[in-house]
Amino acid sequence: MDLLNWNILKSRYLVKDKWLTLRADTYQMPEGQIVEPFYVFEYSTWVNIVAITKTQEIVLVEQYRHGIQKTVLELPGGGMEPEDISPLEAAKRELLEESGYSSDNFIKTGIISPNSATHNNLIHCFLATDVELVADLNLDPTEIINVKLLPLNNLIQNLDNGILLQSFHISSLFFALKKLGKVQFS
Predict the structure, then answer these.
(1) How do the domains of the chain map onto residue ranges?
(2) Domain 46-179 falls under CATH 3.90.79.10
(3) pTM of this prediction?
(4) Which of 21, 27, 62, 180 could in theory staple to 6 by disulfide, Cβ–Cβ 3.0 to 4.6 A?
(5) Is 21 helix (H, G, I), strand (E, B) or coil?
(6) Strands 34-42 and 70-74
(7) How, if at all, do strands 123-133 and 46-53 pair?
């Protein structure tokens, strides 16, 4: 694998703010070719939570996403904060803040990259079972969220209708369904 690695010669930051850091790298390919600029988006580690109630309902959040200019259903989740000691702690915090739900039963189901070509971060996927409503929402100033409960089987049946649009939420759901024994390979 090391024979394929690129050698970074220099980096410069074009944008650095709370939500986005954009870096331009100059690198040398293994054969010696110099490529510049190559843009890299730097983000914090992200977490996604598939939260299932005792009655087999999935907790979803509905919010407006300006990139596609639509209100969409999503899994609870977000970025790790400096005070989060682990992705698990971030997942517990994000689930509680965005939905008011909590659980003692969290299982890490996988790790994915949102876009390994241009993003430097990873997403830790979690399944939380037997979640219960325990608090009011505690949203960021820029968040407006409606919490929705949907029968898990209803969500599964509507995946091909675009009920979830975010690709890494679908990946997280796949990991959770696999862990729950609802997806099997022969």
Answers:
(1) 2-42, 46-179
(2) yes
(3) 0.92
(4) 27
(5) strand
(6) unpaired
(7) parallel
